Amino acid sequence: MAPEQEDYLFAEHEEVTQEEETTSAFWDVLVVDDDPEIHSVTKLALSNLEFWGKKLRFFHAYSGKEAIEILKEQNNISILLLDVVMETDDAGLNVVRRVREEIKNMAVRIIMRTGQPGYAPEEKIIREFDINDYKMKTELTRSKLVTSLLTAIRSYQQICELEAQSHALEQILSASRAILGHTDMGSFAAAVVAQLANILDASGEGLVSGYLDDDMHLRVFGGSEQYREFFGHGIEQLDNGRVIMQVQNCIDTESHQSTAHDITFLLESKNKKAAIYLELEVEPSEAQLKFAEIFLTNVGVGLDNIKLFNELREVAYKDNLTKLPNRANFIEKIESYFNQQQSLVFILVDIAQFSDINNGLGQEVGNLLLLGVAERISIEFPEAQLISRIGADVFGFLMPESQFDEESFIDNLCVPYHVGEHLLTMHFHIGVCRQEDFQPQGIETLKLAYIALNQAKQSSIPLDWYTPDLEEKMAWKLGLIRQLRQDFEMKKLEVWYQPQFSIADRKVIGCEALLRWPSGNGNYISPAIFVPLAENAGLIVEIGQWVLEQACQLQATLQQQGFGELSIAVNVSVPQFKVPNYAQQVKDTILSFNVEPKHIELEVTESVVMDEVNSVINTLQELQEFGVEVAIDDFGTGFSSLSYLQKLPLARLKIDRAFVKDIPHDDSGAIADLVISLGQHLGLKTIAEGVETEEQMTVLQKLGCDEVQGFLLAKPMPERDLLEFLESN
């Protein structure tokens, strides 16, 4: 290399600012080569060189394995001078892969060298693993090596700067989120000081001071621990003249104040002017100060909104509709009753089928009903304390146990409600918890009342009391859910099929897919037990999709064996309809098994339809257009509006077994007759389930029912038995 070139390369580098310097005093270079002479020559050629005021420091590895160990221990390696061929032909490339993929070091710059011409890495590898340069040892002069090194160091420097900026921006976002979570000035100020100290690598000691509304005195808004006792006090009461002076100067001059020991930021907002004082351990860099300025913008917004925060706190603890305390407020306040001995009871009141009212009669009627229930509780039970709206359709309150009579309480609560033009007879589920069972945490007390409430729901009784054994039942249910999840993952669940018949000629026209859960002892756990648990636990979505797949697989088998015209009905629950793009998921499943959509029927209950009427109707219409048929299961048992029935893209009404089982001995046949007649007027087929006797069959046929399903003709059976049944029939 000519002297002029060397001077050009190393003497005329532009001066580097403090932000550009890395934390190390050297540029650390790792030389990786199995030839000791290469290490010596490289170090000799590059010794005493400086790049941007920093010398090179060398680390040495003689194998790929040793290189990886050093890179894991040394975080500041800037350059990797790497031999391609060492203990194996691809040892160098393996090091590169491990550096990028295993160690996740994307900053270190890699210069590969080899003495064997045929081992150059492919261009794709160079791009994929971000290799800076590749040189043949035979043509690598000192000048070329230095040039490659210069380029690599500059690249490493830029990457480090970008990573630092990215980290700082993440830090600012995190800090901004942290301060916005506070709703009073004291905790807000403490959070501001803590987050600003984090950005500047400061000690964390500091305060926020400013003028309160219509106050001419600088006051302490809050800060680190040592200043919290001065909250609201004049700043002159601090036993620290330096802090007082710095804050006062900052406010008076309307500018930041900075010394080697502390920094005071001016904070201006629409309504206030304040100062943030912070003790320093080291002088912050220009970059840190810039990031602090960005953070202070968010602090200013927070200061403007501190009044709004207090208003929001009021909103957060009060129900907007009824103006009663809300769930959060109730939980906080009931904790104060834990150690009191007043013989109180905590009563939790849930409005039964409230969602049906909302969906069937409109949200406005639902809101009026909620106001009516709140008013009823406050008027009829004047001794009630802490009346609160705990949930969408749940109220809670306390009252003396001596004044709580179950029968009169329920009677008063259930007197019909005048809601607009409607007179509504409502039913309630009620859970009661005695004060002796209250817990230190309000949320735990609420949990106990909910246990009693849920027990009342499941037992179909209006009211139940909390007792410790209810928790045992809850634990049993949770254990059952865990076992169900485990058995489902282990593919222990089964799908059985119950044939469906034309009532005219008793020929099989399809079947219904029914979920079965073996208990392990030769018996099966009732779907009436585990299906509701699966729905509450969110398992029903995965299980329901699996049942649909099993049904499609069976339909494909039926096509192959000559029974392709038979349809398979699959039950769908409310949670499944809440899955995004559920209709597309069903279509994709059917297409994946190459079966005709018209041979797959979805059975939905009235509760599914009424949960989110418009959304469900749109989903069902999309599926009908695809070719899937839809049936309403258990029709007549719900609380739906018949107006929605005309909007639904239905093919079939299914008469619930409750309207079939006592035919012909009571008036159940009259309801079945109504459903059949309704189906005929709407052009829908009707199918009766639970048919067990010839008498029932005869009555249903006379009424005009189209199809039947029940033990009289066939019980549910596994797939193999179903195929044999079809062959023999």
From TrEMBL:
InterPro entries assigned to the protein according to its UniProt record, in alphabetical order: CheY-like_superfamily (IPR011006), Cyclic-di-GMP_PDE-like (IPR050706), DUF3369 (IPR021800), EAL_dom (IPR001633), EAL_sf (IPR035919), GGDEF_dom (IPR000160), Nucleotide_cyclase (IPR029787), Rev_trsase/Diguanyl_cyclase (IPR043128)
SMART domains with a match to the protein in the record: EAL, GGDEF, REC
Molecular function in Gene Ontology: cyclic-guanylate-specific phosphodiesterase activity
PROSITE patterns registered for this protein in UniProt: EAL, RESPONSE_REGULATORY
Keywords on record: Phosphoprotein
Keyword field contains Phosphoprotein: yes
Domain Response regulatory span(s) in chain numbering: 28-152
Residues in EAL domain copies: 477-729
CDD domains per the UniProt record, alphabetical: EAL (cd01948), GGDEF (cd01949)
Single GO biological process annotation from the record: phosphorelay signal transduction system
4-aspartylphosphate, modified sites: 83
Stored NCBIfam families: GGDEF (TIGR00254)
Protein name: DUF3369 domain-containing protein
Protein source organism: Pseudoalteromonas piscicida
Taxonomic path: Bacteria, Pseudomonadati, Pseudomonadota, Gammaproteobacteria, Alteromonadales
